[in-house]
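During the reporting period the student researcher (J.K.) took over the structure-prediction task from the postdoctoral fellow and processed the backlog of single-chain submissions. One of the processed entries is reproduced below for the supervisory committee.
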Amino acid sequence: MEDKIKDILKEKDLTQAIATLINEIKEKKERDIAELILEIDRLNRKVEHEKESLKTKLKEAFDLLEEFAKELEKEEKDELIKAIEINKLKALDFLGILKETTEAAIITTLEKNEDIEETIKEITKNLAFETIDTKVDAKHIKNVSKTILLVAADIASISINYSDEILKGAVFGIKKGILKSIEKFKESIEFTPMEAREIIFENYNKIVKDLENIDDLYISCVKEVANSSEAGIKDKMVILSKELESTIYKLKNAAQETIDTLKAKFSDLAKEAASTTSIFKEKAQEAKKLGIRAFMIAKAAIDGAIKSAKDAMNKDQNS
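J.K. obtained the following structure tokens:
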């Protein structure tokens, strides 16, 4: 590379020489990037295939356990069924049945017609917590929250007499579930094994950013579902979102405490994040320099055009 640079400096047309060098570098890297994009696409398809395979294997395992339970005595059978159901709840995301499970649980609550709001709050809290677990990723939390909220909104729209209880129970139940997941994640930080540090290292900035915005994320999710719902349900959910804004501080505080714990536990990662920030600053400064250069080039072109126009006008006047 140094030899090429030295050769460039000998050229008469430096702009063209540099452009040629840049194109050579770009062509090679663009080929590499194109290959990587193809590889990413292939890996994405493989991931989806593996997800389906996992879902199938989990279902087979649960089906076999349930078949085995049928042959047991009542006490042992009940104990096994309970264990199966607990573990199914933990695997809802992988099984792809969060929506169906939420729907069945809310409908069962309505059929029993006892403490509807509190029961739905407890159900949605548990469903959100078990599905999110310690995966406090913004996209994951939003997907889980939205899935449960959409089910609640749909059922509320056809169960008008209980719509307030359903919606309030779901909105505040999910919030509690998210809070519980954040608290569990915070606890897990204390016992993070060395081999897991690299994962946190790679996702450190994202984890912090997601936690910092967790309250806004959930409120916006409620509003998003509200906007996609029919008028009556939308109005109720908008009111709940405003109520949520005044009570979301617990979630925000828990998120901040988790960030503080993360930084304290992984201070070396915090330093790494700081160095990354300095890189961003360098890039910003470079961009600013190039921006000024672009302005100067444009200004020179405009000034040149104006001068040419004036010269032409003067020439016409003198002729």
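The committee noted the following: Residues 205 and 274 are 10 Å apart (CA to CA).
J.K. will present the remaining backlog at the next meeting.
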